[in-house]
Sequence to fold (289 residues):
Amino acid sequence: MEIIDGKKLAANLRAEIASDAAALKAEKGVTPGLAVILVGENPASVSYVTAKEKACAEAGMYSREIRLPESTTQEELLALVKELNGDSAIHGILVQLPLPKHIADKAVIDAIAPEKDVDGFTAVNVGRMLIGEECFLPCTPHGIIKLIEFSGMDLAGKHAVVIGRSNIVGKPVAVLLSRKETNATVTMCHTGTRDLASFTRQADVVVVAAGRPGTLTGDMLKPGAVVIDVGVNRIKDETRPKGFRLAGDADFDSCAKVARAITPVPGGVGPMTITMLLWNTLEAAKRAS
Ligand code: NAD
Fold:
């Protein structure tokens, strides 16, 4: 059984991205720039934003952190996004979600210029992805495809089962897996699926993004399957300094006995998400220069 090392793949890709960013700077005088907007003080969001800024600095990119109070209005946020759309030092704009309840996430996300939408969340970008036009691939789903390839699996003709149908993971993963370049046959399962195990047992690769620990267990797998565990769940654990540990959606121990390869949590999909954000920011800077 192989552990698919997301940290290692992320480090390899980040080294390539840093070298490409340096070349862009040397050849065209352009430093890829990412604006990260955080509204409020949600602790998980603060730590995600800090990690994104650190990753930018390590890749030789410029990042502009804009922290706004919880009381920020939707109009103020829209005005800021508009200003950044026109700022030539900024190639990518990221609005950390969730936003406070009085602001409509969708209105703000769709205000981001598609050529700066490095999260790949705008309706224009999602539509372009669906019909196979040039776009920015959403970071977590793109990272998942890279991890499956890194595990040594050629997806063409394979059966992939995706558990989850969210707009940020399940649906886009299913789209990317079934694109002609990837050529997998995809089954998408969700809370309306009857007898989940009857589908997962047919799968060569299972991507589980349900947000519930223990959704996938070893008895639900075909021997030799590849498992990509997207879930991040906090499990209470008083023996840990923070009072919790992280667990994925797959029961690691039982799945590891049956699978050929599996991503750990943490250290699997997580490191790839920020890496693909850097990838998109570099790409945005290249397209703009
Ligand atoms: P979500 O809650 O929006 O969607 C979960 C989906 O899973 C739903 O579509 C639901 O139908 C399906 N589902 C839930 N329980 C199920 C079950 N028992 N059987 C079949 N389907 C079931 O969640 P999300 O935003 O897609 O995130 C999923 C998980 O991935 C979360 O734990 C989240 O924290 C994690 N996540 C991780 C990263 C990362 O970078 N590592 C990024 C995004 C999300």
